[in-house]
Design a protein that fits this description.
This protein is mainly alpha-helical and 392 residues long. The strands form two sheets. It has a two-stranded antiparallel ribbon with strand order 1-4. A two-stranded antiparallel ribbon has the order 2-3. Helix 4 packs antiparallel against helix 6 and helix 9 crosses helix 11. The C terminus is likely disordered.
């Protein structure tokens, strides 16, 4: 009952509608792909199922950043690290599922370890042959790193641009570490050549459709949890920390604990997004730790509108959809288009797409009510003027 009550707190009609749309997409796209004839105009090809599924994981990543940036004021430039760690946890599970079907036929060691003359499986690979263990690591590894990082950073009262730089340094340090072959994560090539997941062929259409639905359901749950947190009393405290941290501290609250909770939850969401991303794209390598990837997530969130829940989802879908089109039509101009988009949004739409539409709608509503109010206030005056005339 308590959990149900907590989740219902953030269910405004826009949030409810968004969740229903996402769940409808989770059913409609797989149905169109699996059951409609390829010649049907509504048929979704296999390659688009994987592409749309990747977009949904990006939307969940942008939503995770919005929780800390939009509601706590923490501009993290390192959320790509949590996304990549979740992806590596899933990739390690998928590599263990290959078994003797690899190029070198070793039933235990992945191909890259055989190539590098590893004699035994490293201790941190134990357990990844079980899905439940990998799922646990997808949550614990990004969440644990966020807890350790946040504990020291927030207790030291590091804020603003300094915190942003430190988060970017964190993801760059992980990038350099995972590039090393002796780390045991595949080095520059990363993890790839996956065969199946939970016993199902990872290249099969039904598996692809299932992964798409799982991504959509995860995004819907992310929206629900984020709305519940931000719509609760704790969510109001997060906004207070964002807008007036010193005043919140003087009132007796501990802003560092508020930030830490939001940061850990956000990291877990990013890790889940990364775990769903890997089986759909078929590879995970250290390039996912690149600071530029984390900056792109900031762009998605800013374009859609930070602090709006729905905005980051729209921003991720719009920007990545535009990226797919631009890189095909004008590949040499994509980075210029992305930079120009961020500049234009910052100058013309500082609150993003959703924030601007929301503010515009709020301004229109009083304008519609104003004539009604003026009529009601005018009637008593008219009656007052007409009464003396009647007396005369």
């Amino acid at each position: 009952m308590i959990l149900t009550h907590f989740l219902k707190k953030g269910l405004t009609w826009p949030i409810t509608l968004t969740i229903l749309i996402i769940l409808a997409i989770a059913v409609a796209v797989p149905f169109s792909n699996l059951y409609l004839d390829p010649a049907h105009p509504l048929h979704v090809p296999n390659h688009l199922v994987g592409l749309f599924g990747k977009y949904l994981t990006y939307a969940l990543l942008a939503l995770a950043l919005d929780l800390v940036w939009g509601y706590c004021g923490i501009l993290s430039l390192g959320h790509g690290a949590f996304f990549a760690l979740g992806g590596y946890a899933m990739g390690m599970y998928l590599m263990r599922q290959i078994g003797s079907r690899g190029v070198y036929g070793d039933p235990v060691l992945p191909d890259f370890m055989v190539f590098l003359n590893w004699q035994e499986l490293p201790w941190f690979w134990y357990g990844f042959d079980q899905f439940w263990f990998a799922a646990l690591m997808i949550i614990l590894v990004p969440g644990g790193l966020a807890f350790i990082f946040g504990w020291f950073a927030f207790r030291s009262r590091v804020t603003g641009v300094y915190l942003s730089i430190i988060t970017q340094a964190m993801t760059y340090a992980l990038l350099l570490a995972f590039f090393r072959n002796d780390m045991g994560f595949g080095g520059n090539n990363g993890l790839t050549d996956f065969k199946d997941i939970l016993g199902y062929d990872i290249q099969a259409s039904t598996t692809r459709a299932g992964l798409f639905s799982a991504s959509a359901i995860a995004l819907a749950l992310g929206v629900l949890i984020t709305a519940a947190i931000t719509g609760s009393q704790f969510g109001k405290l997060m906004i207070a920390v964002r807008d007036a941290e010193s005043r919140t501290r003087f009132l007796g609250y501990r802003p560092e604990m508020v930030k830490l909770f939001a940061f850990v939850v956000s990291a877990i969401m990013a890790g889940i997004a990364g775990a769903l991303y890997v089986p759909q794209v078929g590879i995970i390598n250290p390039g996912e730790f690149a600071p530029a990837n984390s900056i792109e997530v900031v762009v998605w969130t800013a374009v859609g509108g930070r602090g709006t829940i729905i905005g980051p989802i729209i921003g991720a879908l719009v920007v990545n959809g535009g990226k797919s089109w631009f890189t095909g039509a004008f590949p040499e101009y994509w980075l210029f288009a992305l930079g120009g988009l961020f500049v234009l949004v910052t100058l013309l739409l500082p609150k993003g797409i959703v924030g601007t539409v929301r503010d515009g709608w709020a301004k229109l509503r009083p304008a519609k009510q104003a004539p009604i109010e003026s009529d009601t206030t005018q009637k008593p005056a008219d009656q007052a003027n007409s009464q003396p005339q009647a007396a005369e």
